[in-house]
Amino acid sequence: MDKPVLALEHVTQAYGERRVVKDLTLALDKDQIGCLLGPSGCGKTTTLRIVAGFEPLLAGRVSVNGTVVSRPDWLLPPEKRAIGMVFQDYALFPHLSVQDNIGFGLLHLSRRGRRSRIGEVLELVGLSESRQCFPHELSGGQQQRVALARALAPRPALLLMDEPFSNLDVTLRDRLALEVRQIIKSYGATALFVTHNQQEAFAIADRIGVMDAGELRQWDSVVDLYRKPADPQVACFIGEGTLVPGRATADGAIHTELGLFFDGQAQTDGGPVQVLLRPEDIYHDESSEIKARIIQSQFRGANMFCLLETPSGQQLQALFPGTCEWSAGQSVGISTKLGKPVCFPLDLSSPPSSM
Ligand SMILES: Nc1ncnc2c1ncn2[C@@H]1O[C@H](COP(=O)(O)OP(=O)(O)OP(=O)(O)O)[C@@H](O)[C@H]1O
């Protein structure tokens, strides 16, 4: 099997006494787009800077295409790593035209080679007509694409992007995230980017790493992260949903106030558990004995997103068809449709998870 383009093995880094990246291990294969996702201060940028070679390591190692580029006693300089970077503020040279910005990293090529590569990446990002423009003559989204073209032009082994959409307005962000994914994929590049925005991560990434307080809690495909979260924290952080308390019995059944679920695994201890219910797992069913009161409803066009409360006080999030015309205070019948439920043993010593 091919070696991963990027491998981080047990990487740890600290500022003074404080460890901000803890024992982090992940691998990114060729042509994959990975994303580190987590709240502010969880160590995403520090991890990216470690990969780029701007930060030393306390422990562990980083390899690019099977060659070690960082270990605690040695760092390959950033410019020798074959890594391209797109920064949050794009870092374009204001006094250089678009083509000269892109050509800056191609000085090792002949004049002709440079021209041809600049033309190639400008076409890729849809800015062939703007090659003579200066950065201030372009919109934020166009500057973003120039920065991407400049980073891709030297054909790096790996592309790193730090919050690449944070300077753009929200509607542009969503569109550009998809566009950037398409550009990276059609160029056959491997990329790692960081964001605190889930929607962005879901739009662009093949694999997402959820970080929390310097730890990588799960590194997985987008679908598995949503459907098979590794722990209650990831379950709560990714997407919407509720952890509903239940009791597991030795036959693999989980008893909850919303009915009986089977996770197919014998729970030998028969102890308390939490079952993850995503909004789409709950549906309207007037014939059901389970009734819930609508606390809040939010019309989302095709869907109606509701916050519900059962008679026991358990709150639930549910996604009903947008044609439902319900309002707060109304009581509705609900049922659940769960294939294989996601179930976590309930640690009674820790506070309950909230979303
Ligand atoms: N040069 C530094 N010296 C000391 N502490 C630092 C330094 N750089 C970052 N930190 C601290 O390390 C922790 C991780 O920072 P980092 O920038 O990696 O987080 P982040 O997840 O990228 O956050 P954000 O989304 O806000 O950029 C933070 O608590 C930050 O304050």
TrEMBL record:
Domain ABC transporter residues, every copy: 6-238
The alphabetical list of record keywords is: ATP-binding, Cell membrane, Ion transport, Iron, Iron transport, Membrane, Nucleotide-binding, Transport
The processes (GO biological process) annotated in the record are: quaternary ammonium group transport
Q: Which GO terms describe its cellular component?
A: ATP-binding cassette (ABC) transporter complex
User: InterPro entries in the record, alphabetically?
Assistant: AAA+_ATPase, ABC_SmlMolc_Importer, ABC_transporter-like_ATP-bd, ABC_transporter-like_CS, ABC_transpr_FbpC, Mo/tungstate-bd_C_term_dom, P-loop_NTPase, Transp-assoc_OB_typ2
According to the UniProt entry, its GO molecular function terms are: ABC-type ferric iron transporter activity; ATP binding; ATP hydrolysis activity
Keyword field contains ATP-binding: yes
User: What is a single Pfam family found in this protein's UniProt entry?
Assistant: TOBE_2
Q: What is this protein called?
A: Ferrous iron ABC transporter, ATP-binding protein
Q: What are the top taxonomic ranks of the organism?
A: Bacteria, Pseudomonadati, Thermodesulfobacteriota, Desulfuromonadia, Desulfuromonadales
